[in-house]
C-alpha cells in the first residue's frame, strides 16, 4: 500500500491549474460521496491516478515476493497473477469505499476524501506519510 503513496504526485499534478480543467475536473463533478465516482474520470487521469498505482503495486510486490512460472501477465514485472489479482481487488474495493462515504473499520478514510471533493485542493491521499506530511495537503482538515 505504501507504493500508492509514492505515485500520488501524479494526483497532485492533476490538481494544478494546467492539468485540472483538462484532465481531472470530470472526477470532481461528484462532490457528494458515491462509489462510482472512484472511476469516473478522463482516460489521462485513469492512467495517472488509477492504473499507474496499480502497476506500481504489482511491480513492487513482484520484487519482494519471489514467485516462479510463465503466468506473469503483461506489465506486471514479476508479480504472480494471483498476487496481481488480489492487489487489484483490494485497490478497487479501497477506492470505491473511499468515494462511497461509508466509514468501515480498518479501511480508508471516506470523510477525509469527501472533504477533498468539497475543497479540491486538500487531502489527496488517506494512507501514508508522503501526501499527509511531505506535501502538507491537509492543513484545513481536522
Features:
142 residues, mainly alpha, 55% helix, 0% strand, globular, Fatty acid hydroxylase domain-containing protein, Fatty_acid_hydroxylase, oxidoreductase activity, iron ion binding, Sterol_Desaturase_Related
Give an overview of the whole structure.
This protein has 142 residues and is mostly helical. The chain has one domain (2-67, 74-134). The chain is built from seven helices and no strands. Helix 4 crosses helix 5 and helix 5 packs across helix 6 (110-119).
N- and C-termini, Cα separation: 23 Å
Order of helices and strands: HHHHHHH
Task: Note the beta-strand portion.
Answer: under 5%
Helix content: 40-55%
Query: What's the total helix number?
Result: 7
Could you say which overall geometry the principal axes of the C-alpha atoms support?
globular
What is the strand and helix layout of this fold?
Blueprint lengths: L1 H6 L1 H6 L2 H8 L18 H22 L16 H20 L9 H10 L9 H6 L8
Helix pairs in contact: 4-5, 5-6
Amino acid at each position: 500500500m505504501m507504493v500508492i503513496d509514492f505515485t500520488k504526485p501524479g494526483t497532485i499534478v492533476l490538481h494544478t491549474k494546467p492539468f485540472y480543467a483538462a484532465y481531472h475536473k470530470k472526477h470532481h463533478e461528484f462532490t457528494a460521496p458515491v462509489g462510482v465516482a472512484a472511476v469516473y474520470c478522463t482516460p489521462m487521469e485513469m492512467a495517472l491516478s488509477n492504473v499507474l498505482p496499480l502497476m506500481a503495486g504489482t511491480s513492487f510486490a513482484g520484487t519482494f515476493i519471489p514467485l516462479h512460472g510463465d503466468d506473469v501477465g503483461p506489465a506486471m514485472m514479476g508479480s504472480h497473477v494471483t498476487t496481481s489479482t488480489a492487489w487489484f481487488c483490494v485497490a478497487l474495493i479501497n477506492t470505491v469505499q473511499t468515494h462511497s462515504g461509508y466509514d468501515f473499520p480498518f479501511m480508508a478514510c471516506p470523510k477525509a476524501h469527501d472533504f477533498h471533493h468539497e475543497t479540491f485542493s486538500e487531502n489527496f491521499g488517506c494512507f501514508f506519510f508522503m501526501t499527509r506530511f511531505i506535501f502538507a495537503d491537509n492543513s484545513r482538515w481536522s
